[in-house]
Amino acid sequence: MKHLDPIPLNLASQPFRKERAQLTGFVILCVLLTCTLLTLCGLIVKSRTQAADLRRRIDADSAKLRTLRLEQSKFSSVLAKPQNADVFSDSVFLNQLIARRGLSWSRAFRDLEEVLPPDIKLLAIRLPQVGQEDSDGVNRVQLDMVVGAIKPQSFMVLVKRLQDSKEFGSMSMTSQTPPAQNDPYYKYRLTVAYAQKL
Hints:
Elements: H1 20-79, H2 82-102, H3 105-115, E1 120-133, E2 138-149, H4 152-164, E3 168-177, E4 186-197
Antiparallel strand pairs: 1-2, 2-4, 3-4
């Protein structure tokens, strides 16, 4: 009698498939998507909170600005009255006079000496136009001066030094005169911003 090998039969209505690996992948993907969704929701809530805080600050600053503009208009209307015009012009004149007297000429010349190249002469300097004094005590003025240079290249060195200096700011040249028969200097008239710490 021959021995027969058993025939594998699957009596289930659906054939057996290895779905455990697929299910594990789907679960991991769902967990990652859920974490991403929670992170995005947290970021949205945080950005909405920050935007609300920013809107509150903007509203508060706008209210302060409106109050300050209202006060400024009240002060301007008081200053615009004809009986106050003389007092206002006198106070402006006195403030400028005080600011000019507050400028130390010896310090201004010392600061100029540091930036002037050796072959440039300071030929003239005029009474400065007074600017505003900052809250940190810096008196800002416009120096109007005339310098003389043997070579035009020396003036370019002066311009670079003025730009690199902490005390001097923007500069504009108003006129230039070439050398004459008995005057060997190129003359440059310039206006430069000068900030002197009081």
